[in-house]
Amino acid sequence: MSNPQQLRYSKEHEWLSPAEDGVSTVGITEHAANALGDVVFVQLPEVGSAVTAGETCGELESTKSVSDLYSPVTGEVTEVNEDVVSDPALVNSAPFEGGWLFKVRLAGEPEDLLTADEYTEFSGS
Amino acid sequence: MTDAPRRTALDALHRSLGATMTDFAGWDMPLRYGSEREEHTAVRTRAGLFDLSHMGEITLTGPQAGQALDHALVGNLSALAVGRARYTMICDAQGGILDDLIVYRLAEQEYMVVANASNAQVVLDALTERAAGFETEVRDDRDAYALIAVQGPEAPGILAKLTDADLDGLKYYAGLPGTVAGVPALIARTGYTGEDGFELFLAPGDAEQVWQALTEAGQGAGLVPCGLSCRDTLRLEAGMPLYGHELTTALTPFDAGLGRVVKFDKDCDFVGRAALEAARDQAAERAPRKLVGLIAEGRRVPRAGFPVVAADGTVIGEVTSGAPSPTLGKPLAMAYVDAAYAEPGTEGVAVDIRGTHEPYQVVALPFYKRQR
């Protein structure tokens, strides 16, 4: 697998897209999706709610376990992916595309995120 | 355990198939090869292939092998016909369940006991101790067998291509020695999925050849390799207990709703008899808790250890197994709940999922029963 070069990555295995008009998209990496197994339920933050970098903002249920979703940045949620709520398997089939989770209006510059190459080395895949 | 996990005879094959491996009872086993939900569905609708070589085989031979098992286990094994198998349990003197077992009578004077990997040593030690004084030899055959299961509605057709054994004549819970893909195997019509299927006990050195032959024979029928993850959701849907979850040493077979496996009418004493008679009487008069099925109304998944609560928040039980069910499309759980809440349809039952009380419907087990 390859981690897209234009994204930034957290050590909790979320990715963040480059900001457009101050808004970035958040998802989980393919490495994380593979480790979870089939995702069957996602609970996302509500539109309008505040999220904080490094803090939990939702959860992902798979067959074997539940995992917290961490926000890679601080800001306000502007949109959630309703497609992934109704079809959580998108997280597994297209983690970097149709399986995105939410959009966030950044409260400041993202901090402590990894480049694609750094994340590849960190996650080992 | 600090020892490195043990690997089955099929380990290299699993890795070449890209399996995600997991440590299970000291063994490095395939958790899934791809999507565990697709593996689950394959077993329900077509066929799946499993490596279960971690299971522990123990053989008893000799003129009193049957009597030794009658004394050591709760079942009546001396009455078992040659070529048949029985689901049974081994209990301690207090009636607590040490393990659940399948016992095959392979010959007049030969039985094979199949224990869970996590309990195989305990079962071997107990059988060795309890068989002393009987004319029987207890043999540790854990390393003598690989175990491959082919499960699902297409399993009989797939296996029939590779054996001359009379599969039509082989009933559920029967086993006979035969040949599969040219090598000797004990062919048993048993499983842990709720589907028709077979378990093949064979020499570890033959395992890869048989796996490949089954893979080829199953190609047109949609057979896929399956890991332990879907085995767990399959057995959960089928309402089958798992040791360490629904069954523990703290519970008797009566607590688990499986008192029928205890055969008081056999004409001998057996380990745990007195305690089990008391447990039977108590279960009939005032069962403390009962094992029930729970079906979610929402989508959050209950996991083992989560509290079951009543409408007022009182804890009335505990989840023993839980998972999203691929067949029903909803989260399911097995749970022990206070007898007053155990009737199917009981209102107001919820599972405490990380602080939120999610409504659940109480149902009778199993959740899924195949159409015959």
Automatic annotation (TrEMBL), chain A:
InterPro entries: 2-oxoA_DH_lipoyl-BS (IPR003016), Biotin_lipoyl (IPR000089), GCV_H (IPR002930), GCV_H/Fam206 (IPR033753), GCV_H_sub (IPR017453), Single_hybrid_motif (IPR011053)
Species name: Streptomyces palmae
Cofactor(s) needed by this chain: (R)-lipoate
Keywords: Lipoyl
Assigned GO CC terms: cytosol; glycine cleavage complex
GO biological process: glycine decarboxylation via glycine cleavage system; protein lipoylation
Listed HAMAP family: GcvH (MF_00272)
Function: The glycine cleavage system catalyzes the degradation of glycine. The H protein shuttles the methylamine group of glycine from the P protein to the T protein.
Residues spanning the signal sequence: none
Family (UniProt): Belongs to the GcvH family.
Cofactor note: Binds 1 lipoyl cofactor covalently.
Lipoyl-binding domain boundaries: 23-105
Protein name, per record: Glycine cleavage system H protein
Pfam families, A to Z: GCV_H
Residues recorded as bearing N6-lipoyllysine in the entry: K64
Top-level taxon in the UniProt lineage: Bacteria
Quaternary structure and partners: The glycine cleavage system is composed of four proteins: P, T, L and H.
Automatic annotation (TrEMBL), chain B:
Domain of life: Bacteria
Residue span, GCVT N-terminal domain: 12-266
Keyword Calcium: no
Record key words, sorted: Aminotransferase, Methyltransferase, Transferase
Catalysed reactions listed for this entry: N(6)-[(R)-S(8)-aminomethyldihydrolipoyl]-L-lysyl-[protein] + (6S)-5,6,7,8-tetrahydrofolate = N(6)-[(R)-dihydrolipoyl]-L-lysyl-[protein] + (6R)-5,10-methylene-5,6,7,8-tetrahydrofolate + NH4(+)
Any single GO BP term: methylation
MF annotations from Gene Ontology: aminomethyltransferase activity; methyltransferase activity; transaminase activity
EC numbers: 2.1.2.10
Record has Methyltransferase as a keyword: yes
GO cellular component, one term: glycine cleavage complex
Domain Aminomethyltransferase C-terminal: 289-369
Database matches in SUPFAM superfamilies: Aminomethyltransferase beta-barrel domain, Folate-binding domain
Residues noted as binding substrate in the record, renumbered to the chain: E199
PANTHER family for the chain: AMINOMETHYLTRANSFERASE, AMINOMETHYLTRANSFERASE, MITOCHONDRIAL
Subunit comment: The glycine cleavage system is composed of four proteins: P, T, L and H.
Protein family (similarity comment): Belongs to the GcvT family.
Function: The glycine cleavage system catalyzes the degradation of glycine.
NCBIfam families: gcvT, PRK00389.1
Record protein name field: Aminomethyltransferase
Natural source organism: Streptomyces palmae
